[in-house]
Amino acid sequence: MTINAHVSYMFEAPMREKLLTKPHLTLSVTAGDGNPKESSPFINNTDNDKGTLYDGKNMALFEEEMDSNPMVSSLLSKLANYTNLTQGVREHEEADEEEGAKKKTVKSPQMGTFIGVYLPCLQNILGVILFLRMTWIVGTAGILEAFIIVAMCCSCTMLTAISMSAIATNGVVPAGGSYYMISRSLGPEFGGAVGLCFYLGTTFAGAMYILGTIEILLTYIVPSAAIFKAEDKADEAEAMLNNMRVYGTCCLTLMALVVFVGVKYVNKLALVFLACVVLSILAIYAGVIKTIFEPPDFPVCLLGNRTLKNHGFDKCLKTDIIDNVTVTTKLWSLFCQSSDLNSTCDEYFNLNNVTEVQGIPGLTSGVISENMWSSYGPSDMLVEKNMASVAASDPTLDLNLPYVVNDIATFFTLLVGIYFPSVTGIMAGSNRSGDLRDAQRSIPIGTILAIATTTIIYLSCVVLFGACIEGVVLRDKFGDSVKRNLVIGTLSWPSPWVIVIGSFFSCCGAGLQSLTGAPRLLQAIARDGIVPFLEVFGHGKANGEPTWALLLTAMICETGILIASLDAVAPILSMFFLMCYLFVNLACALQTLLRTPNWRPRFKYYHWALSFLGMSLCLALMFISSWYYALVAMLIASCIYKYIEYRGAEKEWGDGIRGLSLNAARYALIRLEEAPPHTKNWRPQLLVLLNLDSELRVKHPRLLNFTTQLKAGKGLTIVGSVLKGTYLAKETEAKKAEQNIKTAMSAEKTKGFCHVVVSSNLRDGISHLIQSAGLGGMKHNTVLMAWPGTWKQSNDPLSWKNFIETVRETTAAHQALLVAKNVDNFPQQERLGEGTIDVWWIVHDGGMLMLLPFLLRQHKVWRKCKMRIFTVAQMDDNSIQMKKDLQMFLYHLRLDAEVEVVEMSYDMWPLISYIFVAVGNGTNPQIQSITDESRSSIRRKNQTGAQCSGVSNQCAPLEDEKDNEVAQLIHDKNTASHAALNDKPDATPERVHMTWTKEKLFTERNRNREPNASMGVRDLFNMKPNQSNVRRMHTAVKLNEVVVNKSQGAQLVLLNMPGPPKSQGGDENYMEFLEVLLEGLNRVLLVRGGGREVITIYS
To answer: For the Amino acid permease/ SLC12A domain, which residue ranges apply (predicted)?
Structure first.
């Protein structure tokens, strides 16, 4: 170990001595090799590296930042030592024999482009469809349409490969292939949905390869091994399907056991399987060249223009001459009742001659012109050559004769779905990204070269097959016309068995690789934790083998095998692969258009237009192949997407969908900023002010629940709270409070945003929230808060002063205000039964009182409650006409509500309006005693009212007596107040502000000047401050009596909220007025409009 003390010798000697003796001199301690030991692959890890990050005191200026920010030298050392190892899918067959006592040295990936990407892609692309269905597709669709099918599918995969190359070279791609790329580019929802679709596609591909293996085995290698044998021709297809099911299940079980026992054996055999594919392709091209000089001898027997199955007879003759004697052949016995020359034969057999043509006429034969056009037809359609023949009168009898027929109905879109699996497999290179020496260079080059190579092979095969093979042989799917030989094998050189054996092992290898890759893909998805119910499949054997995932894969694969038809399984997996490719293109296009800062792929030959073209082509191919399979695949992906969205674990992977959401939100906010919302679009955008207890938990969670009921998930909700102090000192508490609020919002199902502000005092903090919450046009227009129920018991006067200042500031900001009293008694999730929502409409507030009950009734909790509207009339108003007008107004508003007009005495009406905009000048110590007396009076009256229900005549004198008591109390208090005020020389009358129209105000003033004006009105305009406070309290008492009498049993009472006095001297009186006004009511929502109309009668 070396100790290096770097000291600048620019200082003088005494200064150097002082510095060297300082206890805080920093020494860089390094290992013997001179490099700090790195114990974590993460750049910002500081647990073990704090002693090594600060390497020299010449960086003393940045000393305080070294704990959180590493030096550049340390950063570069970590990046240089990074190794791209497979995450979660590396094989563990080479486990340490010492049971982990000694850890093996992990070798760096060494695979290059050719071995690591090109050959695996080549092996996965070239497969079962080429050997078993390519000739049939060319014969059925014709050379032109087959060329179009191949070109479309290969173009789709090439465009997808370009998009995939851009994604794969945009940073390090750990093993996981397409799933990792899509999930990190489009987010966990899309990643999980498409990852599972890719998994299902890979699983069904395994089923397809196994079915191909069994078809080769039972049709071309050992036909006698069939368990189920058909007695007549009609049962042949069903017998073949049953044989496929039995042998396919056995083959699947065997392959699953091989994968379970050891994947390393599959990997070692991969080269053998690849050699089989390459040799088979070379044998095909060698056979094509040989047909130029010496075409192979594969005669095809035709009866008229109909193709015969050439495995029930040895000679293509009706009769043969043996020893100058005409005898019938085996072919005769197939069409006639007996072998006699005079026996009854099939009509078509008698009318047409037997001819023999060469099945492989050769490249220079000119047969290409006959095979240029399509020959689609229904199931059981005869395979006929384009030549003259005599038709029979009853063609229905031909089905039981040895003719070659279509086993399924054929059409263009079907062939697209069957062919597309032959171009899949382009992800093989990206799936091995963890094993590549330079994945960012190898994946694009290897994948694109492999697709280009296979495209050339497929397109050339289309032309060469059509130019070398007779059309009826091409349309013969199982080679019945060429003695049950594989059609593509008849063209190969040196023997058809080269193709048969090669294709057999190729299909076996592809099936094993599918059963190897699919479980690991499912394991990677399960370990990401985005799909909760799949977590069990993330576990496996001790060595990491995905046992449970393999079991599920085998079960899904078995469903494909039970389908038993290669032609039926192929379109299914085409859907899942096309879905995967579609989202790869979408991911690339989104990242390119959004221009996210992290989008810097090394592969430069991409463009968003190419990605959109590939995406469109994938979507088109899905619906061309099978529109109902496409809908099912999209439905499955959508269900998985929604499941992950609502139940899955939240992941933040910096995906493109989040970037798209940000761009869309920015665009929408800019549009909203252009103009305020129209009245028709107005809805309460809430700022909910919460109080927190000493442990930073929400005091009134029911307020959040009420927010949910009011909003129903629509519009903006900002939940805010204020902490007292400074942000530097309260940062931890602020984060804890924000987390607690988010937890409460989640528990109450409140969708919105949380904002916690730290301020030197609560008043300023609330003011900051009211002013600055929201962004651009997405700002709140309504403030919701709880009534400060303990304001009288609190020793801190700021508790109620902050409330009043909040009311003033919302009014100044032209925002509506909702104050919920007894919010802890509000319903939570239980549905209310029969009940009413009572609205007391005293002053017009823009329609808030009308709109809020309508919004509440949209929620299930309040849905059964009826709406009642009460309004107060003066004595000189026509109550009946007011009721009719209000009903008509509600009719135009499309609101269903009961209407009731409450009449109050003439001299109280100005005071009722006055209380809502009252101006107080100074506090009155007598208010408290009046409040107490008034409350006791209300309680006694309520109790008496309950006893006197139904006996109104007996209770009337009692009520008058109580009113006289309150009046006498007020008179006594007023007498003292007048005496005190009259002693003061500067006492001046107080101006009273009313809320009704100016005309009414002038009318009342003129009536006051008249000699016969009533004493009540005259006193109103001559009241001193204490008098007005007492009269306001009396008004509050009387109005409270009316509200309690009508709405005490209501589920919710909505009431206009009086405004606070403009001067702060009467704040305490204002709180007393509100307290009395709300006395005896269970659930109350005070509503104060924001100064604009919020509801309209127009559409």
So the answer is: 117-313, 405-687
**Spatial contact of 834 and 1011, defined as CB atoms under 8 Å apart:** no
Q: How far is CA 653 from CA 184, 351, 608, in A?
A: 6, 74, 22
Query: CA dihedral in degrees (369, 370, 375, 380; nearest 10)?
Result: -160
**SS3 of 85, please?**
coil
Query: How far apart, in Å, do the first and last CA atoms of the chain sit?
Result: 84
- Cβ pair 160, 448 in contact under 8 A: no
Task: Kindly report which listed range (903-912, 931-940, 985-994, 1037-1046) carries the lowest average pLDDT score.
Answer: 985-994
DSSP tag of 911: H
Task: Return the structure tokens found at 1080.
Answer: 């005896």
Burial readout 1041-1067 (b: 16 or more C-beta within 10 A, e: otherwise)? bbbbebbeebbbbbbbbbbbbeeeebb
Helix or strand or coil: residue 486? coil
Cis amide linkage into residue 957, ω under 30° from 0: no
CA nearest to 1083, candidates 1036, 1056, 1045, 1048: 1048
Alpha-carbon distance of 773 to 755, in angstroms, equals: 8
Name which of 355, 354, 357, 353 is nearest 298 in CA terms. 357
- The per-residue DSSP string of 116-179 comes to IIIHHHHHHHSSHHHHHTHHHHHHHHHHHHHHHHHHHHHHHHHHHHHHHHHHHTSS---TTHHH
235-238-239-242 Cα dihedral, nearest 10 degrees: -160
- Classify 968 as helix, strand or coil: helix
Nearest to 474 by CA among 304, 298, 303, 349: 298
Residue-wise pLDDT tens digits, 238-287 = 888 999 999 999 999 999 998 888 777 777 777 888 888 889 999 999 99
- Tell me which amino acid residue 684 is: P
Whether the pLDDT of residue 205 is over 80: the answer is yes
Q: Provide the 8-state DSSP code for 219.
A: I
Higher pLDDT, 11 or 639: 639
And the tokens for 327?
A: 């005898």
pLDDT mean across residues, the chain: 77
CA separation for the pair 806, 19 (Å, rounded): 59
Beta carbons of 671 and 777 less than 8 angstroms apart: yes
Quick one: which H or E segment has residue 870? Answer: strand 865-873
Which residue from 419, 510, 443, 525 is spatially nearest to 160, judged by alpha carbons?
443
Higher pLDDT, 657 or 391: 391
Distances in Å between the alpha carbon of 309 and those of 356, 389, 465? 12, 18, 21
* Phi and psi angles of residue 614, each rounded to the nearest 5 degrees, phi first: -65, -40
As a whole number of angstroms, the distance between CA 621 and CA 627 comes to 9
Biggest CA-to-CA distance, the chain: 159
